[in-house]
Amino acid sequence: MRLITHNMLSCNIKGVTNGYPLGIEASRLETKESELNPEFLRKIFPKLEWKALRDAAHSLGLNDLPEHVEPSMLEDADFLKNFHHALLEVHLEEGALICPETGRRFPVTKGVPNMLLNEDEV
Amino acid sequence: MWYLCYFLHRLLDYRLPEVEALAKLYGFSEGEKPGQGLQWKQAPAHHPDSPFYYVFLPNEEVAHKIASRSLLLKGMYEVWGEGNSKEELIEAVSSYPEERKAPYLAKDHTFKIVVDRFGKVLSSSEQKACIESIDYVPFQGQVQLKNPQYKFWLIEIDGQVVNNGLPPLEGKHMYFAREIGAGDRSLVSKYELSRRKYLGPTAMDAEIALLMATQALVQPGQLVYDPFVGTGSILIAAAHFGALTMGADIDIRVVRDGRGPDCNVWSNFKQYNLAPPLGLFRADNNMPPWRNNVSEIFDAIICDPPYGVRAGGRKSGGRKMLNGKRDAYIIPEEMRKDHIPSTAPYTLEECVHDLFDMAARLLVMGGRLVYFFPAARDECSETHFPKHPCFTLVSKSEQILSTRWSRCLLTMEKTQRYSTEEADCARDRHLEFKENHLQILQASKEKGNLHSVVFSPSGGAAGPDLQEQYGANGQTNQESRPKYRGKYV
């Protein structure tokens, strides 16, 4: 699971109001290089929750994302490289996503988060 | 300018929408004023399933691009003349403007003539005779059979023959035309399912998946989502056209495990050297785990919703609980880790409602939702298709499954932003579905579910509604649609 997926998902258990962002429990991370596509990054940037991305990256030991961002930074090659790396190249292979409100663990196995709810959560 | 489209005789209902979608992809669709955009024209004697259509396009370049990416076009042509007899054809070709013909007939060019008779294979001696009979065009260039600069086609329709089961086109007709572009079906064999490593029972046929991606106007760099991803067969087609993809499925074994480390959704993308999906996750379309404020992130949503013929839809929430057979579950803490949540049947109606709500929220403006919808054959019309205030129907393509059932590929375009009003309305509907689960399920069973209708002998398991509709003996009204379509489509 890349951080782009993490950025879009939340805990949707019935009654939960603050299910975002999900905490990350990482047992195995993998870095897979991929081609940098500035156009895509510029397009996806306004759709992301920056703080959630930065905090998630931080919790995985990636400290290169600035706290405050503005669209002009998308012209900067170094920024794009760090942004691309955090968003698309780091994969959570094994671990879990944790609901900030209830502490519910959504397991991540073989890179696939299991967001399905139990009967008492829907 | 008007160009002749000569279609292949397959997927009849998909052919015009494919050309329309490609025209839009190459920047030509609605003109400023009515009458300037893409238009279709047919010879009066031709029925709607005829392989010959004239299409109005701005220029040869667009026509060439469309033809080269088309799967269902044999070719696109500039017609120099047509007629019901050889004399009429000669007359028409000789009166075609000299300045349009001369550049292609000049001395220093290479050319080739193709003879084609619709629905018939010509022997080489017949072909030779036909070619030699073209003495009414003053060719001066060199004949070259391999990679000539220009290809000329003599296309004939023999009115007497029942072509491939099509009702005969009235009378004999002939075209002499210059090829602008030819369709390319190499992709269909490249992505053929029989060569794909990881397959499921509902993997989408490669040709249809590619056509779906075309309908969705997939372009490089776009983000495409399939909420019922399965083995990824639809996203593979999208990825082929350069899209980045995301998929979800309620069945974790399919998305996570596949049949092992080298035979799963990821390996399917790897097999064709395509960019792997940006993300795959397990989620329920009925309760998608998107963050509240996520909106307009996908350029297209393409899917084949589970409507219960080969695989029934499931949604989360205990089956017994929704049926009212037991009270709310409390799963003990020590059991939570390995608990497998039970799922309940997911009716088509609810599934489509959820799909629309999600697509209305997550698609960019102008983004397309392309999906299959099952319909009784005589109900395959606009009035029976689901509607949503945010979407406009662009095209529908019927594909016949049995004498009674079809599936329609529907292409919808997002033409209105998702508002809080729609969100509130969707939330109410969601609760309604949940509270009335049992009644809705019962009602859909009484109607006769798709699985039983598709696979039962006619009249057998059809519900009361269907019995009535199709007469007491369960026979379909065969008059309503010509039979040949079911046989060859």
From TrEMBL, chain A:
<dbReference type="InterPro" id="IPR005651">
    <property type="entry name" value="Trm112-like"/>
</dbReference>
<dbReference type="InterPro" id="IPR039127">
    <property type="entry name" value="Trm112"/>
</dbReference>
<protein>
    <recommendedName>
        <fullName>Multifunctional methyltransferase subunit TRM112-like protein</fullName>
    </recommendedName>
</protein>
<dbReference type="Pfam" id="PF03966">
    <property type="entry name" value="Trm112p"/>
</dbReference>
<comment type="similarity">
    <text>Belongs to the TRM112 family.</text>
</comment>
Automatic annotation (TrEMBL), chain B:
<dbReference type="Pfam" id="PF01170">
    <property type="entry name" value="UPF0020"/>
</dbReference>
<feature type="compositionally biased region" description="Polar residues">
    <location>
        <begin position="470"/>
        <end position="479"/>
    </location>
</feature>
<keyword id="KW-0489">Methyltransferase</keyword>
<feature type="domain" description="Ribosomal RNA large subunit methyltransferase K/L-like methyltransferase">
    <location>
        <begin position="195"/>
        <end position="316"/>
    </location>
</feature>
<protein>
    <recommendedName>
        <fullName>tRNA (guanine(10)-N(2))-methyltransferase</fullName>
        <ecNumber>2.1.1.214</ecNumber>
    </recommendedName>
</protein>
<dbReference type="InterPro" id="IPR016691">
    <property type="entry name" value="TRMT11"/>
</dbReference>
<keyword id="KW-0819">tRNA processing</keyword>
<dbReference type="InterPro" id="IPR000241">
    <property type="entry name" value="RlmKL-like_Mtase"/>
</dbReference>
<keyword id="KW-0694">RNA-binding</keyword>
<comment type="similarity">
    <text>Belongs to the class I-like SAM-binding methyltransferase superfamily. TRM11 methyltransferase family.</text>
</comment>
<keyword id="KW-0949">S-adenosyl-L-methionine</keyword>
<dbReference type="Pfam" id="PF25904">
    <property type="entry name" value="Tmrp11_N"/>
</dbReference>
<feature type="region of interest" description="Disordered">
    <location>
        <begin position="464"/>
        <end position="489"/>
    </location>
</feature>
<keyword id="KW-0808">Transferase</keyword>
<dbReference type="InterPro" id="IPR002052">
    <property type="entry name" value="DNA_methylase_N6_adenine_CS"/>
</dbReference>
<feature type="domain" description="tRNA (guanine(10)-N(2))-methyltransferase TRMT11 N-terminal">
    <location>
        <begin position="2"/>
        <end position="185"/>
    </location>
</feature>
<keyword id="KW-0963">Cytoplasm</keyword>
<dbReference type="InterPro" id="IPR029063">
    <property type="entry name" value="SAM-dependent_MTases_sf"/>
</dbReference>
<keyword id="KW-0820">tRNA-binding</keyword>
<dbReference type="InterPro" id="IPR059073">
    <property type="entry name" value="TRMT11_N"/>
</dbReference>
